[in-house]
User: Which sequence fits this backbone?
């Protein structure tokens, strides 16, 4: 822990933080769950998904990038923000090609779990049905781009933790896609033991032959909603 | 071929002394010499700069004016904006299709021409316009196309290189950008001597210069209106190895072109403002980020810089002031509206994709090369020069309390004299419309697509930061124009220009466009409009930067100010599918060669 600690409030809960922590880090430690998708505790935040957006002193900011500061007033669990978050998840379902019942990641997928937690029902938007390819050239890893949500966790993990830069972005706007540092994944330096191969929140980067080791029904989010682990840390007393 | 590419890359890399942050210049050199960025060049650039291929591809794939595939020798890019279309751009495009043999969006069979639409080129006062390689042609009519194409063909036959900024161009018909300074005012465009503002600044301390800017209550002219003196103070207070002064000449907001006019008419005053900022901030380096479309200005601007060096207004010990060194480099952009956003601009300056940064930290704290950086608009710097010339009190004497000085407005659309008007802040829309000769406008777009669509009931409002705030784009629309068609074009603009970093803007802009198309295709219901409004709200609230946060404005401000235009499009049904059954089955019908048999009534 660096620096002095101080407090701020999130939805009337008083949260303790230390200098250098983001709102999201401080809330996680205090057991207050703010929905998020692109954030990963071991990586620099990148601010892609905006699911963690909160009202901070009356202005919208992403909790994963915003440093906590003394006396800050944060609103997170409000009907309006949760509706906006649900809309973002719906956008991602419309943007990619997600067929949950046929996906190896179902039940362990953060996108799907957020959909459930935020009360998503039928998709209100027409799907964009993009054409995306599957890269199965690597002996141990599949890249199923239909499911990529462009969170760049793999990009960041490969660069910062694995020191390899196997992944990157390509294009812009709605044409943005995940790129690899070679003609195909099999030609890159990626190994199944890399952090980059383990951080994907959805069923886009998959280790071959691992898909059904844990059967449907007994996976992470079959047992409890996403965020429950964080909320369990919350002291039982009222905030 | 590989050898030639190798030589081009080696030379370009040497030119920037293998500085990775100059990747943009390296890649642009390849684009100019080879005509596109082949995979071989990407491999070699990565190797030479010691970075990964995936990083080079990340940057190259971002910019509209960098090609990874070979395209025609001549790239004809026609501006597609509400103003160009109302001035006949569609017919001009047809004429170019006929003359070149290329359909829009494709390359002609002989490989000579690629024809495509592009976003606003900064020529709204002389549409239809086009960018042909590095040259801007303006005020086009369908009759110009054959002559232009013939001249291009001839230059090709005579072996001349494509017209590019660093080569002598061939003479093209209509290759002229009119300056169009229609009304100059008493502040920005006042007559003054080169160097006067800078010399005045050097008689004071750096702090006092900053205080003069604060006292003048100068606010940023790029659109947001942040107090310039405060920005400088924050920058100066930040600790760093270097401080940087950046001039934002990306001018990408459709309908604005006043920075073009400033850089054409009084580039000296702009560079002088940057130099004054350098003095006030303790910076030694300034950068001017020039939008790729303005490459035709590059040479002249370099000449102005050269002259200022010769006069001792740039370089070492400026004006004999011991220890005050400052130089300015011009960085060319490559076709990306988002690079006008200051943190995206900095990323682009560092040779990366133009994705905005999360703030904090702000650029004043950690900007270019992670050092304290002040990014200001072209016009802001020109104002700084005037403030130092004539004093803060004089400057404050113009405009309103909250918005001191004058403002350059880029006026285009249905008005007899489009061009730049320098007016005092506080002018009402009505007064402005009288001034430009369009008192009967049906609606006025203030601030470009990211601004507001203003209805006649609001023509009494004032153009000032405290009321209708604008970076200067004013597009006038006459009675014959359809407000929703304009909203559609603006929405398409945001789809094209979203950087894609964050979900609400990347996906939301396309979803808004699809919904708007359904409604304009007379298949929209009240439910569709409600859903679109909710979606627009989410995009506004949740997007990461100003682009996404304003991308819904064409929809939201027309909903607010022109509800009747929306109502007129609505169908009475509770629900209509986006496409008709016939449309949905069209492909199957074509493949099978027969139409489906209609279901029996009640079957
Ligand atoms: C999408 C977007 C595009 C922008 N484009 C420009 C631009 O072309 N020129 C400009 O000066 N400011 C532009 N800005 C504003 C800049 O981020 C920044 O506020 C400005 O350069 C600061 O200069 P100023 O204080 O002198 O206005 C843009 C902002 C956004 C969000
Ligand atoms: S592959 Fe997975 S981790 Fe990588 S960007 Fe796509 S969704 Fe994120
Ligand atoms: S709002 Fe749009 S332009 Fe801005 S970061 Fe998000 S995707 Fe990029
Ligand atoms: S978790 Fe904060 S933006 Fe994605």
Assistant:
């Amino acid at each position: 822990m660096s620096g002095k600690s101080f407090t701020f409030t999130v939805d009337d809960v008083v949260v303790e933080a230390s200098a250098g922590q983001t709102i999201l880090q401080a809330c996680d430690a205090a057991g207050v769950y703010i929905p998020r998708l692109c954030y990963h505790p071991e990586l620099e935040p990148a601010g892609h998904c905006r699911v963690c957006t909160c009202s901070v002193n009356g202005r919208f900011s992403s909790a994963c990038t915003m440093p906590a500061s003394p006396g800050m007033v944060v609103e997170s669990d409000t009907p309006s923000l949760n509706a906006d978050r649900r809309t973002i998840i719906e956008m991602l379902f419309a943007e990619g090609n997600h067929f949950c019942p046929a996906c190896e990641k179902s039940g362990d997928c953060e996108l799907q779990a957020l959909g459930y937690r935020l009360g998503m029902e039928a998709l209100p938007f027409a799907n964009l049905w993009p054409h995306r390819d599957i890269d199965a050239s690597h002996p141990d890893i599949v890249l199923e781009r239909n499911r990529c949500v462009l969170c760049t966790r793999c990009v960041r993990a490969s660069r910062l933790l694995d020191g390899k830069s196997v992944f990157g972005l390509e294009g812009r706007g709605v044409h943005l896609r995940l790129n690899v540092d070679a003609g195909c994944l099999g030609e890159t330096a990626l190994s199944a033991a890399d952090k980059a191969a383990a951080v994907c929140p959805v069923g886009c980067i998959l280790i071959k032959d691992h898909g059904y080791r844990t059967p449907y029904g007994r996976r992470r989010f079959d047992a409890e909603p996403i965020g429950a682990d964080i909320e369990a840390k919350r002291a039982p007393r009222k905030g | 071929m590989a050898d030639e590419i190798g030589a081009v890359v080696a030379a370009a890399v040497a030119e920037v002394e293998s500085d990775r942050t100059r990747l943009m210049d390296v890649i642009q050199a390849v684009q100019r010499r080879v005509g596109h960025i082949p995979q071989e060049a990407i491999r070699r650039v990565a190797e030479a700069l010691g970075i990964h291929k995936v990083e080079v591809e990340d940057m190259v794939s971002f910019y509209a004016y960098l090609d990874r595939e070979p395209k025609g020798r001549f790239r004809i890019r026609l501006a597609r904006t509400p103003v160009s279309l109302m001035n006949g751009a569609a017919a001009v495009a047809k004429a170019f299709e006929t003359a070149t043999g290329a359909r829009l969006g494709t390359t002609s069979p002989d490989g000579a021409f690629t024809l495509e639409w592009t976003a606003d080129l900064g020529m709204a006062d002389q549409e239809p316009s086009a960018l042909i390689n590095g040259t801007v042609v303006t005020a086009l009519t369908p009759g110009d196309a054959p002559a232009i194409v013939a001249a291009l063909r001839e230059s090709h036959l005579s072996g001349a290189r494509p017209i590019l900024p660093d080569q002598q161009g061939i003479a093209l018909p209509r290759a002229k950008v009119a300056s169009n300074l229609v009304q100059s005012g008493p502040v920005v465009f006042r007559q003054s001597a080169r160097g006067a503002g800078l010399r005045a600044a050097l008689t004071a301390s750096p702090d006092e210069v900053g205080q003069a800017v604060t006292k003048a209550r100068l606010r940023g002219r790029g659109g947001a209106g942040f107090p310039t003196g405060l920005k400088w103070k924050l920058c100066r207070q930040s600790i760093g190895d270097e401080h940087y002064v950046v001039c934002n000449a990306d001018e990408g907001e459709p309908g604005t072109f006043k920075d073009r006019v400033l850089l054409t008419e009084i580039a000296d005053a702009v560079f002088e403002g940057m130099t004054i900022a350098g003095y006030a901030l303790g910076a030694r380096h300034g950068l001017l980020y020039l939008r790729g479309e303005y490459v035709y200005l590059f040479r002249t601007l370099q000449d102005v810089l050269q002259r200022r060096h010769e006069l001792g207004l740039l370089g070492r010990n400026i004006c004999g002031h011991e220890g005050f060194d400052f130089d300015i480099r011009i960085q060319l952009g490559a076709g990306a509206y988002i690079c006008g956003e200051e943190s995206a601009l900095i990323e682009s300056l560092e040779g990366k994709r133009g994705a905005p940064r999360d703030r904090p930290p702000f650029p004043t704290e950690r900007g270019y090369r992670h050092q304290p950086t002040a990014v200001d608009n072209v016009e802001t710097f020109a104002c700084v020069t005037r403030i130092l010339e004539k004093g803060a009190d004089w400057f404050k004497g113009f405009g309103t309390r909250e918005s001191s000085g004058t403002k350059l407005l880029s006026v285009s659309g249905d008005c007899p004299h489009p061009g730049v008007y320098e007016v005092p802040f506080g002018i009402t829309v009505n007064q402005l419309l009288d001034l430009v000769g369009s008192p009967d406008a049906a609606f006025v777009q203030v601030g470009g697509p990211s601004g507001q669509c203003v209805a006649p009931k609001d023509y009494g409002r004032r153009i000032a930061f405290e009321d209708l705030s604008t970076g200067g784009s004013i597009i006038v629309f006459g009675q014959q124009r359809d407000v929703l068609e304009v909203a559609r074009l603006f929405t398409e603009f945001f789809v094209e220009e979203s950087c894609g970093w964050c979900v609400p803007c990347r996906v939301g802009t396309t979803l808004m466009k699809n919904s708007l198309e359904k409604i304009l295709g007379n298949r929209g219901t009240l439910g569709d409009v409600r859903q679109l409004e909710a979606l627009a709200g989410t995009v506004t609230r949740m997007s990461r930067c100003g682009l996404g946060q304003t991308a819904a404005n064409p929809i939201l401000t027309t909903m607010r100010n022109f509800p009747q235009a929306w109502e007129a499009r609505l169908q009475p049904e509770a629900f209509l599918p986006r496409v008709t059954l016939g449309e949905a089955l069209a492909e199957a019908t074509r493949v099978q060669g027969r139409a489906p048999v209609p279901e029996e009534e009640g079957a």
